[in-house]
Design a protein that fits this description.
five-stranded mixed β-sheet
């Protein structure tokens, strides 16, 4: 099975092509404000590099948030459009879960994305990848309180591309093997049912009280 992986949510723009669980190519570039112009050419580049055609795609895995509102929208829209036009199945995965694939020697891992105003997008996973705290938009102080209710801070690796006062973070080293494996066997979802997972309201929605 040929799988296309797309992640445009946060710090990196990632496009990967896999045959079953085998990574054929993974292009990883820094994200910027020209994402809408870069994504489709990068997908084409990935398929060309491994002498495959986009029509060979049987499965699409897309990160659907949280992260940049624009980034999430672009990645999800492209993935849905491709899944519909190619008639292939589609799966969504959390950006936080992707970051949590970083190898660690601690009992727990907490991926963090800066959501501004002293808030973060965060989750918590055990060393065997079980979810301990589900994805949420939360103040950093409240998150730390929740973590301390579960374990001591020295048993936690905080993973982030950003820096935060009061904690030490490790830059993510993504290992997508488990993500790909977990999304091979089921039927996925209808592309029309895939939506961005922003976790928080947009600034406009907050101002309007929507």
């Amino acid at each position: 099975m040929i799988t296309l992986f797309i992640d445009t949510c946060h710090y990196n723009l990632m496009v990967g092509v896999y045959r079953d669980e085998e990574e054929l190519v993974l292009l990883n570039e820094k994200n910027d404000n020209h994402l809408s112009e870069r994504l489709l050419p990068l997908i084409e580049k990935a398929f060309n590099r491994v002498a495959l055609d986009i029509n060979d795609t049987e499965n699409i895995i897309v990160a659907n948030g949280p992260g940049s509102f624009t980034g999430v929208r672009i990645g999800v829209t492209v993935a849905k459009t491709l899944a519909y036009s190619l008639g292939c199945k589609i799966h969504t995965v959390s950006e936080l879960e992707i970051m949590a694939t970083t190898p660690t020697s601690t009992e727990y891992i907490v991926p963090l994305i800066d959501a501004r105003r002293d808030a973060v997008y965060a989750a918590m996973y055990s060393s065997n990848s079980n979810t301990v705290i589900t994805d949420r938009y939360i103040s950093l102080n409240k998150l730390l309180d929740k973590v301390k209710e579960i374990t001591s801070i020295d048993q936690v690796t905080f993973v982030s591309y950003e820096q935060f006062d009061g904690i030490v973070t490790t830059v993510p080293k993504i290992d997508l093997s488990s993500i790909i494996c977990d999304n091979l066997d089921d039927d996925g979802v209808l592309c029309h049912l895939v939506n961005p997972n922003y976790l928080k309201k947009t600034e406009a929605e907050e101002k309007l009280g929507v």
